[in-house]
Automatic annotation (TrEMBL):
Residues 1-119 are annotated as: Disordered. InterPro entries: G_ERA_dom, GTP-bd, GTPase_Era-like, KH_dom-like_a/b, KH_dom_type_2, KH_sf_prok-type, P-loop_NTPase, Small_GTP-bd. One of its GO terms (molecular function) is ribosomal small subunit binding. Residues 1-22, 110-119 have a biased composition (Low complexity). GO terms for biological process: ribosomal small subunit assembly. It comes from Actinomyces oris. Residues 189-192 are annotated as: G3. Residues 134-301 form the Era-type G domain. NCBIfam families: era, PRK00089.1, small_GTP. Monomer. Residues 332-420 form the KH type-2 domain. This is GTPase Era. Residues 168-172 are annotated as: G2.
Length: 434
């Protein structure tokens, strides 16, 4: 590295004046001579320590002299001062003494400030709730296709989670709110716990386990029409490590006889230690109120967590994508549900002037453009169907649900594309929202 002191100074531009007869090199070579200090100005002296300590009073006007008169000699302003000297009188503690006129002015200013603050203040209305009100979270877990989403919809009283006969339908946490007079229960419907074969499966299992640590009670769903298997035992071992109470719920009670239901309840009781065991039928709405009362016991004292009437916090685009995926899952092969992802690309309002060039169809319908993503071209052909008939059926079914959700007419524009092995591709998973 070259030392900066050895570098040649750049040539001066034409507009920079130069000393006559001296080159830049000569100027740099000559030492800079500093003038010797001269005598102090006449009358100048450094202040003493006592003068520095006393100093000027910060409460007095620095422009005022001790006589209190300004440069013009007019001391009419001094008539407002308490002693006519131009200085403010101080009390024993060093605070200024205000006259009655000053007090009146300050009171008027304070009143004006209060009035402006009142006009800008926003009134926050907090709804009344009983002192013994309870609110908390209940996590619904189980292996795939155990009836978790159907149970969630039945307890909330509205469809907030899609359902399908295919396993692993749920791919993210879905929250639903149960409102009672003296309680509020927030249900968290989770993806089915399973032995993962892809990166997506591993991430879904991790999501469930993270959710289990932040709830007040766990609902473990075990279907009545299937024998207890390795998946149920695997989940039971995980739940046994929690300090959170676990309620075992035997779902699909309407699909078996009383004798078979009794045998399943006995098998569940021997499977692990449960806070309660409740058989339910979400399809027939049987024992749902009993389960809600059981969960209510484990809710802590708390104000409401959600506004009255709000049953879910699902984003609109997520719900639209789920309705399309639900329609696409009906009547397809077993391997396709795992390979299908749905993304809402755009929602355009025809009333927005910026969207005029993108509007399709007539009648001012809301434009919803959705992509269905599969892993292989053969799966793409299954979704589209011969002559596009299958894709058209998906659109018709999904549009009905979307219009009911949004409360207006919709033009649904579906596109199918391929992203090879996206379930095991971290970048593809990130783009698809996983």
């Amino acid at each position: 590295m070259t030392d900066t002191a050895d570098q040649t100074a750049p040539a001066a531009r034409d507009d920079q004046p130069q000393a006559p007869g001296e080159t830049p090199e000569e100027l740099l070579a000559e030492p800079l001579e500093m003038p010797a200090p001269g005598p102090a100005p006449v009358g100048f002296r450094f202040p003493t320590d006592a003068e520095l300590m006393d100093g000027p009073n910060p409460l007095t006007d620095p422009d005022d002299e001790e006589g209190g008169e300004d440069e013009s000699g007019d001391d009419s302003d001094g008539a407002d001062d308490s002693d006519g000297s131009g200085a403010i009188r101080l009390d024993a503690d060093g605070f200024p003494i205000l006259d009655e006129d000053d007090d009146a002015d300050e009171s008027a200013d304070a009143a004006d400030t209060a009035d402006s603050a009142d006009s800008a203040r926003v009134e926050i209305v907090v709804p009344d709730f009983p002192e013994d009100f309870r609110a908390g979270f209940a996590c619904i877990v189980g292996r795939p296709n155990a009836g978790k989403s159907t149970l969630t919809n039945a307890m909330v009283g509205a469809k907030i989670a899609i359902t399908s006969g295919r396993p692993q339908t749920t791919r993210h946490n879905v929250r639903g709110v149960i409102h009672k007079e003296n309680a509020q229960i927030v249900l968290v419907d989770t993806p089915g716990l399973h032995r993962p074969r892809t990166l997506l499966g591993k991430r879904l299992n991790d999501l469930v386990r993270e959710t289990l640590t932040d709830v007040d009670v766990v609902v473990f769903c075990i279907p009545a029409n299937e024998k207890i298997g390795p998946g149920d035992r695997f989940i039971t071992r995980d739940l046994a490590e929690l300090r959170t109470p676990v309620v075992a719920v035997v779902t699909k009670a309407d699909t078996v006889t009383r004798e078979a239901l009794a045998a399943q309840l006995l098998a569940v009781s021997e499977l692990g230690e449960w806070a309660d065991i409740v058989p339910v039928s979400a399809q027939r709405n049987e024992q749902i109120d009993v389960l809600e009362e059981v969960l209510f016991k484990y809710m802590p004292l708390s104000p409401p967590l959600y506004p009255t009437g709000e049953i879910t916090d699902e984003p609109q685009q997520v719900m639209i994508a789920e309705l399309v995926r639900e329609a696409a899952l009906e009547g397809v092969r077993d391997e396709l549900p795992h390979s299908l992802a749905v993304v809402v690309d755009e929602i355009a309002d025809p009333d927005d002037e910026r969207e005029v060039g993108h509007i399709k169809g007539a009648g001012g319908r809301l434009q919803v453009r959705v992509s269905l993503v599969v892993e292989r071209d053969s799966q793409k052909a299954i979704i589209i169907g011969k002559g596009g008939r299958r894709l058209k059926e998906v659109g018709v079914t999904a549009r009905k649900g979307i219009e009911k959700l949004l409360g207006r007419k919709v033009y649904l524009d579906l596109h199918v594309r391929t992203a090879k092995d996206w379930q095991s591709d971290p970048k593809a998973l990130a783009r698809l929202g996983f």
